[in-house]
Specification:
By secondary structure, the protein is an alpha+beta fold. It has helices at residues 6-10, 18-24, 34-55, 90-95, 116-128, 191-201, 242-251, 257-264, 270-280, 293-305, 321-331, 389-396, 441-493, 497-515, 544-551, and strands spanning 61-70, 73-79, 132-137, 144-152, 157-166, 173-181, 206-210, 217-219, 336-341, 345-347, 350-360, 371-376, 379-381, 416-424, 518-519, 537-538. A hairpin with a 6-residue loop joins strand 7 and strand 8. Helix 13 runs antiparallel to helix 14 (497-515).
Protein backbone atom coordinates (compact mmCIF):
# COMPACT_ATOMS: atom_id res chain seq x y z
CA UNK A 1 0.00 0.00 0.00
CA UNK A 2 1.38 3.38 -1.01
CA UNK A 3 1.99 5.85 1.79
CA UNK A 4 0.03 9.10 1.80
CA UNK A 5 1.21 12.40 3.21
CA UNK A 6 -0.66 14.45 5.78
CA UNK A 7 -1.28 17.04 3.08
CA UNK A 8 -2.99 14.45 0.83
CA UNK A 9 -5.16 13.22 3.71
CA UNK A 10 -6.06 16.80 4.65
CA UNK A 11 -7.52 17.42 1.17
CA UNK A 12 -10.26 14.86 1.89
CA UNK A 13 -11.34 16.49 5.10
CA UNK A 14 -14.26 18.92 5.04
CA UNK A 15 -16.90 20.33 7.32
CA UNK A 16 -20.04 18.22 7.88
CA UNK A 17 -23.34 20.12 7.97
CA UNK A 18 -25.87 19.42 10.68
CA UNK A 19 -28.60 18.60 8.17
CA UNK A 20 -26.21 16.42 6.15
CA UNK A 21 -25.29 14.46 9.29
CA UNK A 22 -28.91 13.81 10.25
CA UNK A 23 -29.82 12.97 6.65
CA UNK A 24 -27.33 10.08 6.83
CA UNK A 25 -28.28 9.19 10.43
CA UNK A 26 -32.02 9.70 10.32
CA UNK A 27 -32.58 6.78 12.73
CA UNK A 28 -31.37 9.13 15.49
CA UNK A 29 -34.46 11.27 14.89
CA UNK A 30 -36.99 8.43 14.83
CA UNK A 31 -37.00 7.67 11.09
CA UNK A 32 -35.37 4.23 11.23
CA UNK A 33 -38.28 2.37 9.60
CA UNK A 34 -41.31 3.24 7.45
CA UNK A 35 -43.92 2.65 10.14
CA UNK A 36 -42.08 4.77 12.68
CA UNK A 37 -41.34 7.50 10.13
CA UNK A 38 -45.04 8.01 9.36
CA UNK A 39 -45.93 8.23 13.05
CA UNK A 40 -42.99 10.54 13.87
CA UNK A 41 -44.01 12.98 11.12
CA UNK A 42 -47.58 13.24 12.44
CA UNK A 43 -46.35 13.44 16.04
CA UNK A 44 -43.99 16.35 15.34
CA UNK A 45 -46.64 18.32 13.44
CA UNK A 46 -49.33 17.75 16.09
CA UNK A 47 -46.94 18.66 18.92
CA UNK A 48 -46.09 21.95 17.20
CA UNK A 49 -49.78 22.72 16.69
CA UNK A 50 -50.62 22.07 20.35
CA UNK A 51 -47.72 24.21 21.60
CA UNK A 52 -48.63 27.10 19.27
CA UNK A 53 -52.32 27.06 20.26
CA UNK A 54 -51.61 26.93 23.99
CA UNK A 55 -49.02 29.72 23.84
CA UNK A 56 -51.55 31.89 21.99
CA UNK A 57 -54.38 31.04 24.43
CA UNK A 58 -56.47 29.23 21.80
CA UNK A 59 -58.38 26.00 22.47
CA UNK A 60 -56.77 23.64 19.92
CA UNK A 61 -58.73 22.14 17.04
CA UNK A 62 -56.49 19.92 14.92
CA UNK A 63 -57.26 18.06 11.70
CA UNK A 64 -55.02 15.08 10.84
CA UNK A 65 -55.43 13.43 7.44
CA UNK A 66 -53.36 10.52 6.11
CA UNK A 67 -53.89 9.48 2.46
CA UNK A 68 -52.42 6.23 1.11
CA UNK A 69 -51.04 6.99 -2.37
CA UNK A 70 -49.86 3.40 -2.96
CA UNK A 71 -46.33 1.96 -3.18
CA UNK A 72 -45.70 2.75 0.52
CA UNK A 73 -46.17 6.47 -0.06
CA UNK A 74 -48.44 8.66 2.03
CA UNK A 75 -49.68 12.23 1.91
CA UNK A 76 -49.86 13.65 5.44
CA UNK A 77 -51.80 16.83 6.27
CA UNK A 78 -51.92 18.43 9.73
CA UNK A 79 -54.00 21.60 10.07
CA UNK A 80 -54.60 23.69 13.20
CA UNK A 81 -56.44 26.83 14.34
CA UNK A 82 -53.36 28.33 16.00
CA UNK A 83 -51.97 31.87 15.72
CA UNK A 84 -50.17 31.15 12.43
CA UNK A 85 -46.54 31.95 11.59
CA UNK A 86 -45.19 35.26 10.30
CA UNK A 87 -44.09 35.13 6.66
CA UNK A 88 -40.31 35.42 7.04
CA UNK A 89 -40.17 32.68 9.71
CA UNK A 90 -41.97 29.98 7.72
CA UNK A 91 -38.96 28.77 5.63
CA UNK A 92 -36.62 28.64 8.65
CA UNK A 93 -39.06 26.80 10.94
CA UNK A 94 -39.86 24.07 8.39
CA UNK A 95 -36.63 23.81 6.39
CA UNK A 96 -33.74 24.45 8.79
CA UNK A 97 -32.64 21.97 11.46
CA UNK A 98 -31.83 23.21 14.99
CA UNK A 99 -33.94 26.33 14.58
CA UNK A 100 -36.63 27.18 17.12
CA UNK A 101 -37.63 29.20 20.15
CA UNK A 102 -37.64 26.51 22.85
CA UNK A 103 -34.04 25.27 23.13
CA UNK A 104 -32.85 28.19 25.28
CA UNK A 105 -36.15 28.63 27.10
CA UNK A 106 -36.47 26.97 30.53
CA UNK A 107 -40.17 26.26 30.64
CA UNK A 108 -42.31 23.24 29.89
CA UNK A 109 -43.01 22.64 26.20
CA UNK A 110 -43.46 19.67 23.88
CA UNK A 111 -40.66 20.62 21.51
CA UNK A 112 -37.17 21.18 22.84
CA UNK A 113 -34.48 20.88 20.19
CA UNK A 114 -35.76 22.67 17.08
CA UNK A 115 -35.34 19.52 15.00
CA UNK A 116 -38.72 17.74 14.81
CA UNK A 117 -40.82 19.17 11.97
CA UNK A 118 -37.83 20.16 9.82
CA UNK A 119 -36.51 16.58 10.15
CA UNK A 120 -39.90 15.34 8.87
CA UNK A 121 -39.63 17.70 5.88
CA UNK A 122 -36.12 16.39 5.21
CA UNK A 123 -37.26 12.75 5.43
CA UNK A 124 -40.10 13.39 2.97
CA UNK A 125 -37.65 15.09 0.62
CA UNK A 126 -35.18 12.17 0.82
CA UNK A 127 -37.79 9.45 0.24
CA UNK A 128 -40.11 11.05 -2.34
CA UNK A 129 -38.19 14.04 -3.68
CA UNK A 130 -41.27 16.19 -3.20
CA UNK A 131 -41.30 19.50 -1.31
CA UNK A 132 -43.23 20.21 1.87
CA UNK A 133 -46.24 22.48 1.38
CA UNK A 134 -46.92 25.06 4.10
CA UNK A 135 -49.93 27.37 4.39
CA UNK A 136 -50.14 29.87 7.25
CA UNK A 137 -52.36 32.80 8.19
CA UNK A 138 -51.96 35.09 11.22
CA UNK A 139 -55.37 36.80 11.33
CA UNK A 140 -58.76 37.33 9.62
CA UNK A 141 -57.51 40.41 7.77
CA UNK A 142 -54.04 39.01 7.02
CA UNK A 143 -53.16 37.20 3.77
CA UNK A 144 -52.50 33.44 3.74
CA UNK A 145 -48.93 32.64 2.69
CA UNK A 146 -48.22 29.43 0.78
CA UNK A 147 -44.73 27.91 0.47
CA UNK A 148 -43.20 24.84 -1.15
CA UNK A 149 -39.88 24.06 0.56
CA UNK A 150 -36.80 21.85 0.32
CA UNK A 151 -33.83 21.68 2.71
CA UNK A 152 -30.32 22.24 1.39
CA UNK A 153 -28.68 19.52 3.52
CA UNK A 154 -25.12 20.73 2.84
CA UNK A 155 -25.82 24.27 4.04
CA UNK A 156 -28.72 23.45 6.42
CA UNK A 157 -30.77 26.22 4.85
CA UNK A 158 -34.23 26.42 3.25
CA UNK A 159 -34.74 26.35 -0.52
CA UNK A 160 -37.98 28.08 -1.54
CA UNK A 161 -39.41 26.38 -4.62
CA UNK A 162 -42.67 28.28 -4.63
CA UNK A 163 -44.06 31.25 -2.72
CA UNK A 164 -47.42 32.95 -3.15
CA UNK A 165 -50.40 34.54 -1.41
CA UNK A 166 -53.56 32.44 -1.60
CA UNK A 167 -57.17 32.52 -0.45
CA UNK A 168 -57.81 30.43 2.69
CA UNK A 169 -61.16 30.39 4.47
CA UNK A 170 -59.56 29.89 7.92
CA UNK A 171 -59.29 32.99 10.14
CA UNK A 172 -55.86 31.94 11.44
CA UNK A 173 -53.80 28.78 11.62
CA UNK A 174 -51.19 26.65 9.89
CA UNK A 175 -51.42 23.69 7.52
CA UNK A 176 -48.49 21.35 6.82
CA UNK A 177 -48.51 18.86 3.94
CA UNK A 178 -45.71 16.30 3.51
CA UNK A 179 -45.36 13.39 1.08
CA UNK A 180 -43.23 10.60 2.48
CA UNK A 181 -42.42 6.91 2.35
CA UNK A 182 -44.13 5.07 5.17
CA UNK A 183 -46.14 2.11 6.37
CA UNK A 184 -49.51 2.12 8.09
CA UNK A 185 -50.18 -0.73 10.55
CA UNK A 186 -52.66 -0.69 13.42
CA UNK A 187 -51.92 -1.77 16.96
CA UNK A 188 -50.16 -0.35 20.01
CA UNK A 189 -47.52 1.53 17.97
CA UNK A 190 -49.83 3.04 15.37
CA UNK A 191 -51.01 6.54 14.46
CA UNK A 192 -54.44 5.57 15.80
CA UNK A 193 -52.97 4.81 19.23
CA UNK A 194 -50.92 8.03 19.25
CA UNK A 195 -54.00 10.16 18.48
CA UNK A 196 -56.03 8.39 21.18
CA UNK A 197 -53.30 8.81 23.82
CA UNK A 198 -52.87 12.47 22.86
CA UNK A 199 -56.59 12.99 23.53
CA UNK A 200 -56.22 11.35 26.98
CA UNK A 201 -53.49 13.69 28.28
CA UNK A 202 -54.77 16.75 26.41
CA UNK A 203 -58.47 16.76 27.40
CA UNK A 204 -58.73 20.37 26.16
CA UNK A 205 -58.06 19.47 22.49
CA UNK A 206 -60.44 18.41 19.72
CA UNK A 207 -58.87 16.20 17.05
CA UNK A 208 -60.49 15.21 13.76
CA UNK A 209 -58.58 12.22 12.39
CA UNK A 210 -58.92 10.67 8.95
CA UNK A 211 -56.90 7.40 8.87
CA UNK A 212 -55.62 5.90 5.59
CA UNK A 213 -58.28 3.21 5.90
CA UNK A 214 -61.64 3.43 7.62
CA UNK A 215 -64.00 6.17 8.68
CA UNK A 216 -63.14 9.58 10.07
CA UNK A 217 -62.86 9.72 13.88
CA UNK A 218 -63.46 12.65 16.16
CA UNK A 219 -61.92 13.06 19.62
CA UNK A 220 -63.98 15.81 21.27
CA UNK A 221 -62.45 17.85 24.09
CA UNK A 222 -63.53 16.89 27.63
CA UNK A 223 -62.76 20.30 29.20
CA UNK A 224 -63.07 23.86 27.90
CA UNK A 225 -60.15 25.36 29.82
CA UNK A 226 -56.57 25.62 28.64
CA UNK A 227 -53.71 24.31 30.80
CA UNK A 228 -52.03 26.86 33.00
CA UNK A 229 -49.41 28.68 30.92
CA UNK A 230 -45.88 27.85 32.16
CA UNK A 231 -43.55 30.75 32.89
CA UNK A 232 -39.93 30.90 31.79
CA UNK A 233 -37.34 30.63 34.56
CA UNK A 234 -33.59 31.11 34.80
CA UNK A 235 -31.32 28.09 35.37
CA UNK A 236 -30.94 26.80 38.91
CA UNK A 237 -27.39 26.87 40.36
CA UNK A 238 -27.46 23.15 41.23
CA UNK A 239 -27.95 22.19 37.59
CA UNK A 240 -25.05 24.19 36.09
CA UNK A 241 -21.83 22.45 34.95
CA UNK A 242 -18.35 23.98 34.90
CA UNK A 243 -18.17 24.58 31.14
CA UNK A 244 -21.61 26.23 31.10
CA UNK A 245 -20.70 28.34 34.13
CA UNK A 246 -17.51 29.60 32.43
CA UNK A 247 -19.54 30.51 29.34
CA UNK A 248 -22.11 32.38 31.45
CA UNK A 249 -19.33 34.34 33.20
CA UNK A 250 -17.91 35.39 29.81
CA UNK A 251 -21.25 36.54 28.37
CA UNK A 252 -22.89 38.22 31.36
CA UNK A 253 -23.53 41.97 31.39
CA UNK A 254 -23.27 42.19 35.19
CA UNK A 255 -20.24 43.85 36.79
CA UNK A 256 -19.86 41.95 40.07
CA UNK A 257 -19.97 38.27 41.03
CA UNK A 258 -22.80 38.92 43.50
CA UNK A 259 -24.99 40.59 40.89
CA UNK A 260 -24.11 37.81 38.42
CA UNK A 261 -25.43 35.17 40.82
CA UNK A 262 -28.65 37.06 41.62
CA UNK A 263 -29.33 38.01 37.96
CA UNK A 264 -28.43 34.86 36.02
CA UNK A 265 -29.85 32.19 38.35
CA UNK A 266 -33.21 31.44 39.96
CA UNK A 267 -33.66 31.23 43.75
CA UNK A 268 -30.51 33.26 44.47
CA UNK A 269 -31.08 36.44 46.45
CA UNK A 270 -28.48 38.86 47.83
CA UNK A 271 -28.02 36.86 51.05
CA UNK A 272 -27.63 33.52 49.24
CA UNK A 273 -25.19 35.11 46.76
CA UNK A 274 -22.99 36.36 49.61
CA UNK A 275 -23.06 32.90 51.22
CA UNK A 276 -22.00 31.30 47.93
CA UNK A 277 -19.10 33.76 47.63
CA UNK A 278 -18.01 32.97 51.22
CA UNK A 279 -18.15 29.21 50.61
CA UNK A 280 -16.19 29.69 47.38
CA UNK A 281 -13.61 31.99 49.06
CA UNK A 282 -14.28 34.68 46.42
CA UNK A 283 -15.01 38.38 46.86
CA UNK A 284 -18.60 39.43 45.99
CA UNK A 285 -17.30 42.40 43.93
CA UNK A 286 -15.09 40.21 41.70
CA UNK A 287 -15.58 40.96 38.02
CA UNK A 288 -17.20 37.91 36.33
CA UNK A 289 -15.38 38.36 33.00
CA UNK A 290 -12.02 38.46 34.77
CA UNK A 291 -12.52 35.11 36.53
CA UNK A 292 -10.20 32.25 35.55
CA UNK A 293 -11.14 28.59 35.12
CA UNK A 294 -9.81 27.84 38.63
CA UNK A 295 -11.97 30.62 40.11
CA UNK A 296 -15.02 29.28 38.24
CA UNK A 297 -14.33 25.83 39.71
CA UNK A 298 -14.15 27.40 43.19
CA UNK A 299 -17.48 29.11 42.52
CA UNK A 300 -19.08 25.80 41.50
CA UNK A 301 -17.85 24.17 44.72
CA UNK A 302 -19.25 27.12 46.68
CA UNK A 303 -22.64 26.66 45.00
CA UNK A 304 -22.72 22.97 45.94
CA UNK A 305 -21.83 23.80 49.58
CA UNK A 306 -24.67 26.32 49.88
CA UNK A 307 -28.24 25.34 50.69
CA UNK A 308 -30.42 26.85 47.95
CA UNK A 309 -34.20 26.63 47.57
CA UNK A 310 -35.60 24.32 44.92
CA UNK A 311 -36.41 26.06 41.63
CA UNK A 312 -39.93 27.54 41.19
CA UNK A 313 -42.54 25.27 39.63
CA UNK A 314 -44.67 27.84 37.79
CA UNK A 315 -42.51 26.91 34.77
CA UNK A 316 -44.37 23.56 34.66
CA UNK A 317 -47.99 22.97 33.72
CA UNK A 318 -49.06 19.49 34.89
CA UNK A 319 -52.26 17.90 33.62
CA UNK A 320 -53.77 17.70 37.12
CA UNK A 321 -55.22 14.59 38.77
CA UNK A 322 -58.85 15.52 37.99
CA UNK A 323 -58.16 16.33 34.33
CA UNK A 324 -56.09 13.17 33.86
CA UNK A 325 -58.94 11.09 35.27
CA UNK A 326 -61.41 12.78 32.90
CA UNK A 327 -59.14 11.91 29.99
CA UNK A 328 -58.98 8.27 31.12
CA UNK A 329 -62.77 8.07 31.52
CA UNK A 330 -63.28 9.57 28.07
CA UNK A 331 -61.10 7.06 26.19
CA UNK A 332 -60.88 3.88 28.35
CA UNK A 333 -63.86 1.75 29.36
CA UNK A 334 -63.14 0.63 32.94
CA UNK A 335 -64.95 0.22 36.26
CA UNK A 336 -62.45 2.04 38.49
CA UNK A 337 -60.29 5.12 37.91
CA UNK A 338 -57.75 6.86 40.08
CA UNK A 339 -55.03 9.44 39.46
CA UNK A 340 -52.49 11.45 41.44
CA UNK A 341 -50.20 14.44 40.91
CA UNK A 342 -47.00 14.34 42.97
CA UNK A 343 -45.43 17.44 44.59
CA UNK A 344 -42.64 19.03 42.49
CA UNK A 345 -39.14 17.58 42.66
CA UNK A 346 -35.74 18.36 41.08
CA UNK A 347 -33.06 16.57 39.03
CA UNK A 348 -29.86 18.34 37.98
CA UNK A 349 -31.46 21.63 38.98
CA UNK A 350 -34.45 21.05 36.67
CA UNK A 351 -37.90 20.98 38.31
CA UNK A 352 -40.27 18.18 37.34
CA UNK A 353 -43.64 16.75 38.36
CA UNK A 354 -44.78 13.15 38.07
CA UNK A 355 -48.43 12.24 37.51
CA UNK A 356 -49.89 8.74 37.44
CA UNK A 357 -53.25 7.10 36.94
CA UNK A 358 -54.86 3.65 36.79
CA UNK A 359 -57.96 2.48 34.92
CA UNK A 360 -58.99 -0.96 36.21
CA UNK A 361 -61.51 -3.56 35.05
CA UNK A 362 -64.17 -3.09 32.41
CA UNK A 363 -63.52 -4.86 29.12
CA UNK A 364 -59.72 -4.97 29.60
CA UNK A 365 -58.16 -8.47 29.40
CA UNK A 366 -57.27 -9.92 32.80
CA UNK A 367 -54.78 -12.56 31.59
CA UNK A 368 -52.32 -10.20 29.89
CA UNK A 369 -49.73 -7.73 31.13
CA UNK A 370 -51.14 -4.33 31.99
CA UNK A 371 -51.24 -1.69 29.28
CA UNK A 372 -48.71 1.10 29.87
CA UNK A 373 -49.24 4.65 28.61
CA UNK A 374 -46.11 6.82 28.91
CA UNK A 375 -46.13 10.58 28.46
CA UNK A 376 -43.59 13.41 28.61
CA UNK A 377 -44.86 17.00 28.60
CA UNK A 378 -48.27 15.77 27.37
CA UNK A 379 -46.71 13.84 24.46
CA UNK A 380 -47.25 10.04 24.10
CA UNK A 381 -44.08 7.93 24.08
CA UNK A 382 -44.93 5.07 21.72
CA UNK A 383 -41.60 3.32 21.12
CA UNK A 384 -38.69 1.98 23.24
CA UNK A 385 -40.90 1.06 26.20
CA UNK A 386 -38.31 -1.35 27.61
CA UNK A 387 -35.58 1.32 27.72
CA UNK A 388 -37.70 3.87 29.63
CA UNK A 389 -37.43 4.84 33.31
CA UNK A 390 -41.24 4.64 33.53
CA UNK A 391 -41.24 0.93 32.62
CA UNK A 392 -38.38 0.26 35.03
CA UNK A 393 -40.32 1.97 37.84
CA UNK A 394 -43.48 -0.05 37.11
CA UNK A 395 -41.51 -3.34 37.15
CA UNK A 396 -39.80 -2.43 40.44
CA UNK A 397 -43.12 -1.65 42.15
CA UNK A 398 -44.66 -4.56 44.09
CA UNK A 399 -48.11 -4.92 42.49
CA UNK A 400 -49.13 -8.13 44.28
CA UNK A 401 -50.01 -6.12 47.38
CA UNK A 402 -52.28 -3.93 45.23
CA UNK A 403 -54.36 -6.73 43.72
CA UNK A 404 -52.47 -7.50 40.49
CA UNK A 405 -50.42 -10.59 39.63
CA UNK A 406 -46.70 -10.12 39.05
CA UNK A 407 -43.68 -12.35 38.48
CA UNK A 408 -40.27 -11.25 39.67
CA UNK A 409 -38.69 -8.70 37.32
CA UNK A 410 -41.77 -8.52 35.10
CA UNK A 411 -44.65 -6.20 34.37
CA UNK A 412 -47.84 -6.87 36.37
CA UNK A 413 -50.69 -8.90 34.89
CA UNK A 414 -54.31 -7.84 35.17
CA UNK A 415 -57.21 -5.89 33.62
CA UNK A 416 -55.60 -2.47 34.02
CA UNK A 417 -54.07 0.49 32.20
CA UNK A 418 -51.26 2.35 33.98
CA UNK A 419 -50.55 5.94 32.96
CA UNK A 420 -47.41 7.88 33.92
CA UNK A 421 -46.69 11.48 32.87
CA UNK A 422 -43.53 13.51 33.51
CA UNK A 423 -43.75 17.30 33.17
CA UNK A 424 -40.44 19.19 33.19
CA UNK A 425 -38.65 22.21 31.74
CA UNK A 426 -36.15 19.77 30.19
CA UNK A 427 -37.15 16.12 29.85
CA UNK A 428 -34.05 13.85 29.89
CA UNK A 429 -34.71 11.70 26.81
CA UNK A 430 -32.30 8.87 25.98
CA UNK A 431 -31.94 10.07 22.36
CA UNK A 432 -32.92 12.81 19.92
CA UNK A 433 -35.92 10.74 18.83
CA UNK A 434 -37.54 11.47 22.25
CA UNK A 435 -38.95 8.00 22.87
CA UNK A 436 -37.73 6.99 26.35
CA UNK A 437 -36.89 8.74 29.64
CA UNK A 438 -33.36 8.42 31.06
CA UNK A 439 -32.92 6.50 34.33
CA UNK A 440 -32.33 9.35 36.77
CA UNK A 441 -32.69 8.06 40.37
CA UNK A 442 -34.74 11.14 41.38
CA UNK A 443 -37.22 10.52 38.55
CA UNK A 444 -37.55 6.78 39.25
CA UNK A 445 -38.14 7.48 42.95
CA UNK A 446 -40.98 9.94 42.20
CA UNK A 447 -42.62 7.60 39.68
CA UNK A 448 -42.61 4.78 42.24
CA UNK A 449 -44.19 7.02 44.89
CA UNK A 450 -46.93 8.07 42.48
CA UNK A 451 -47.61 4.45 41.47
CA UNK A 452 -47.74 3.34 45.10
CA UNK A 453 -50.26 6.06 45.90
CA UNK A 454 -52.50 4.91 43.03
CA UNK A 455 -51.87 1.28 44.02
CA UNK A 456 -53.21 1.82 47.54
CA UNK A 457 -56.49 3.15 46.13
CA UNK A 458 -56.65 0.23 43.69
CA UNK A 459 -56.04 -2.23 46.54
CA UNK A 460 -58.88 -0.69 48.55
CA UNK A 461 -61.25 -1.03 45.57
CA UNK A 462 -60.22 -4.61 44.75
CA UNK A 463 -60.60 -5.55 48.44
CA UNK A 464 -64.11 -4.10 48.58
CA UNK A 465 -65.04 -5.87 45.37
CA UNK A 466 -63.75 -9.18 46.76
CA UNK A 467 -65.70 -8.75 50.01
CA UNK A 468 -68.90 -7.97 48.12
CA UNK A 469 -68.39 -11.06 45.92
CA UNK A 470 -67.98 -13.19 49.05
CA UNK A 471 -71.17 -11.68 50.48
CA UNK A 472 -73.03 -12.60 47.30
CA UNK A 473 -71.73 -16.16 47.58
CA UNK A 474 -72.82 -16.53 51.21
CA UNK A 475 -76.27 -15.12 50.48
CA UNK A 476 -76.73 -17.37 47.45
CA UNK A 477 -76.08 -20.45 49.61
CA UNK A 478 -78.63 -19.35 52.20
CA UNK A 479 -81.23 -18.22 49.66
CA UNK A 480 -80.87 -21.52 47.82
CA UNK A 481 -82.16 -23.48 50.84
CA UNK A 482 -84.89 -21.11 52.06
CA UNK A 483 -87.57 -22.67 49.79
CA UNK A 484 -86.52 -26.17 50.95
CA UNK A 485 -86.76 -25.11 54.61
CA UNK A 486 -90.24 -23.67 54.00
CA UNK A 487 -91.38 -26.83 52.22
CA UNK A 488 -90.01 -29.08 54.98
CA UNK A 489 -91.82 -27.06 57.68
CA UNK A 490 -95.04 -27.26 55.64
CA UNK A 491 -94.79 -31.06 55.51
CA UNK A 492 -93.83 -31.46 59.20
CA UNK A 493 -96.43 -29.06 60.58
CA UNK A 494 -99.11 -29.58 57.97
CA UNK A 495 -99.16 -25.93 56.98
CA UNK A 496 -101.03 -24.42 54.06
CA UNK A 497 -99.32 -23.04 50.94
CA UNK A 498 -100.01 -19.48 52.14
CA UNK A 499 -98.34 -20.19 55.49
CA UNK A 500 -95.35 -21.72 53.65
CA UNK A 501 -94.94 -18.49 51.64
CA UNK A 502 -95.12 -16.45 54.88
CA UNK A 503 -92.34 -18.60 56.38
CA UNK A 504 -90.15 -18.09 53.29
CA UNK A 505 -90.77 -14.33 53.42
CA UNK A 506 -89.94 -14.29 57.14
CA UNK A 507 -86.69 -16.20 56.53
CA UNK A 508 -85.68 -13.71 53.80
CA UNK A 509 -86.42 -10.79 56.14
CA UNK A 510 -84.26 -12.44 58.81
CA UNK A 511 -81.46 -12.78 56.22
CA UNK A 512 -81.74 -9.10 55.28
CA UNK A 513 -81.76 -8.07 58.94
CA UNK A 514 -78.73 -10.15 59.90
CA UNK A 515 -76.63 -9.62 56.73
CA UNK A 516 -77.84 -6.17 55.64
CA UNK A 517 -79.66 -5.23 52.46
CA UNK A 518 -77.47 -5.65 49.36
CA UNK A 519 -78.00 -3.02 46.68
CA UNK A 520 -76.01 -2.90 43.43
CA UNK A 521 -75.13 0.44 41.86
CA UNK A 522 -74.55 0.26 38.12
CA UNK A 523 -71.50 2.10 36.79
CA UNK A 524 -72.33 5.18 34.73
CA UNK A 525 -69.28 6.51 32.87
CA UNK A 526 -71.12 9.78 32.09
CA UNK A 527 -70.97 10.69 35.78
CA UNK A 528 -67.72 11.47 37.51
CA UNK A 529 -68.65 9.40 40.58
CA UNK A 530 -66.27 8.34 43.29
CA UNK A 531 -64.91 4.85 42.80
CA UNK A 532 -66.44 3.29 45.94
CA UNK A 533 -69.90 4.26 44.65
CA UNK A 534 -69.42 1.71 41.90
CA UNK A 535 -69.39 -1.08 44.48
CA UNK A 536 -72.31 -2.89 46.03
CA UNK A 537 -73.56 -1.09 49.14
CA UNK A 538 -74.81 -2.67 52.33
CA UNK A 539 -77.85 -0.52 53.00
CA UNK A 540 -79.12 -1.42 56.49
CA UNK A 541 -78.07 1.44 58.74
CA UNK A 542 -78.37 -0.63 61.89
CA UNK A 543 -75.82 -3.19 60.65
CA UNK A 544 -72.90 -0.77 60.99
CA UNK A 545 -70.19 -3.39 61.38
CA UNK A 546 -71.11 -5.06 58.07
CA UNK A 547 -71.25 -1.67 56.32
CA UNK A 548 -67.76 -0.84 57.61
CA UNK A 549 -66.41 -4.17 56.36
CA UNK A 550 -67.88 -3.68 52.91
CA UNK A 551 -66.56 -0.14 52.53
CA UNK A 552 -63.07 -1.07 53.69
CA UNK A 553 -60.46 1.38 54.85
CA UNK A 554 -58.33 3.75 52.75
CA UNK A 555 -55.39 3.08 55.07
CA UNK A 556 -55.46 -0.72 54.45
Amino acid sequence: MAKKSAQELAQKQREIGVAEFFARNRHLLGFDNKRKALLTTIKEAVDNSLDACEEAGILPEIIVEVIDMGNDRFHVTVEDNGPGIVKNQIPKIFAKLLYGSKFHSLKMSRGQQGIGISASVMYGQLTTGRPAKITSKTGPKSPAHYYELHINTQKNSPEILKEEVIEWEKEHGTKVEIDLEGSYIGGSQSIDEYIKETAIVNPHVTIIYQPPRGEQRMFVRAVDTLPKEPKEIKPHPYGVELGILIKMLRWTETRTLQSFLTTEFSRVGAGTAKEICENAALLPNTKPKAMSREMAEQLLKGINKTKIMNPPTDCISPIGAAQLEKGLRKEINAEFYTSVTRPPSVYRGNPFIIEAGIAYGGNQPGDKTVRILRFANRVPLIFQQGACAITKSIIETSWKSYGLQQSRGSLPVGPATIVVHIASVWVPFTSESKEAIAHYPEIIKEIKLALQECGRKLSSYVGKKRRVAMEFKKRSFIEKYIPHVGQALQELLGLSKLEEEKIEKSLKETLEKSRGKLELIEFDETKNVDYDENLARLGKEENKEEIANAKGSEED
